[in-house]
Amino acid sequence: MNPSRDLCNRAPVAQKVVSLYQELYAIEQEIAWSDHETRARLRQERAASVFDQITDICRSTQQSVEPASLLGKAIAYFLRHEAGLRTYLTDGRIEIDNNAVERAIRKIALVRKNSQFAGSEMAADVWMLFASLVATCEVNDIDPRRYLFWLCFKASQSKVDNIPFGELLPWHFAEAEARGDRDHLKFMDFVSGHTGPRYRDVKPGRSEDPIDT
User: How far apart are CA 175 and CA 141, in angstroms?
Assistant: First the structure.
């Protein structure tokens, strides 16, 4: 059986599923700025039934579709991951897809060939760790440069002060920045070597550079 022809012959099924997915994304767009509890509640009220329709269509269609066809593979993939995909309906912290992650790692993917020359497996692990931290900073609108300076200082003190690893993550640095503690800001300006604009005022890609002292 020709997979492309099979998919065309069963286009109404595919079109129905696509239209249902569009409904799910329309709901997500409406509730995007709601808190986690509200998102979970509205998903249960509005999106769960739509998701169930997709599941029912896939299950009822699977037996009459050639497994090797494009439609058959798509249905098998959905049903194989249904439990995981359904998780977003009950947890408002989870997005409907992983597009945000894909965008975050795009820059890493672009330099994948360069990472092959890290020098050793340990060096590659370190590269991966710092790449993850920088990506987390960017997603949370945190200046990666200032954070890494702060991290290096805090890490050097962690054994003495018994600082838990979790307290060295970017959002804890963001909390310190938001508090505007004078000693913290003075220290950060000293170790980062500038007193110029903060990351939230000068975003990557703009011509303004921090002022060196």
Answer: 12
Task: Tell me the Ramachandran region of residue 65: left when phi exceeds 0, alpha when psi lies from -120 to 50, beta otherwise.
Answer: beta
Give the CA count within 13 Å in the CB-facing half-sphere of 210.
Answer: 17
196 vs 208: CA distance, rounded Å: 10
Alpha carbon distance 150, 143 (integer Å): 11
Mean pLDDT of 24-28: 97
Size of the chain in residues: 213
Are 174 and 180 spatial neighbours (Cβ–Cβ below 8 Å)? no
Q: How far apart are CA 70 and CA 199, in angstroms?
A: 46
- Report the DSSP beta bridge partners of residue 212: 194
Angle (nearest 5°) at CA 139 between 212 and 22: 150
**pLDDT per residue as tens digits for the range 73-120:** 999 999 999 999 999 999 999 999 988 888 777 777 776 777 777 788
* Amino acid at the residue 64: S
**3-class DSSP state of 58:** helix
CA distance 90 to 117: 43
pTM for the model = 0.55
Contact 62, 89 (CB under 8 A): no
